Structures are given as C-alpha cells and as structure tokens.
Amino acid sequence: MNESIAHTTSTDSAVTLSDDERQPCEVWTRVMGYHRPVSSFNRGKKGEHNERRFFAEARAALG
C-alpha cells in the first residue's frame, strides 16, 4: 500500500468569496474559568475584550 499522497497547491491563486458565500465567525473567550461567545457580552465587556493585550514570549525575552 502506497501511503504517499501528492498535494498540489498554488500560491498564485487567491480564493475570492462573494458576500452571500461568507458566514460569520463566532469568537469565544475564556472568562472566569469557562468559555463564552464574545457576542453574548454586554457593551462594557466587549470594550474590555477589545482593549486586551496578548502576551508574546519573544518580545518579553528582549525586554
């Protein structure tokens, strides 16, 4: 049995979708030990979520 499978990809072609082919992406985050969708947050909590900063180990090691 030959298990090698040839995959061909083209980096020159871009995928283009019309608006009716797109679907919304639901973003979840961990809050107080459990996961919740960001869409269920009230206005203040959404603002806090947008102001979050993410830790990057490489940047911390340089400082």
TrEMBL record:
Q: Which organism is it from?
A: Bradyrhizobium barranii
Query: Mind listing the UniProt keywords for this protein, alphabetically?
Result: Plasmid
Any idea what this protein is called?
A: Anaerobic ribonucleoside-triphosphate reductase
Q: Per the record, where are the segments of Polar residues compositional bias? A: 1-16
Q: Segment Disordered: which positions? A: 1-21
